[in-house]
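Re-run requested by the PI after the first attempt was lost when the workstation crashed. Everything re-entered from the original request form. Ligand of interest: zinc ion.
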Amino acid sequence: MQIKTARRLLMFFMIVAVALALIGLIFLEPGTVISVYVTLISFGCMVAAIIILLGYCKCPWCGKRITANLMKAEYCPHCKKDFETGLKHKGRR
Ligand SMILES: [Zn+2]
């Protein structure tokens, strides 16, 4: 999986998980069947987000995990290679 795809999926699952958790807390009565389902789906999305974070948010060139600046990084903080082109990133902006 491409890191940009992984990043988008990660965002998607996190937003869905948080949104469902909020909906469950604000609009649904605790103990009802639907609130149990919403909680379960929210939990499932959170687990999926963690799996993507741990399993796929890695540099395609050196294989190290990207943690700092994950959502914005264009190049790897370890080997400084661009995620898409593999070209070395020169200096800092
Ligand atoms: Zn790297």
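Saved to the shared folder this time. Helices lie at 3-27, 33-55.
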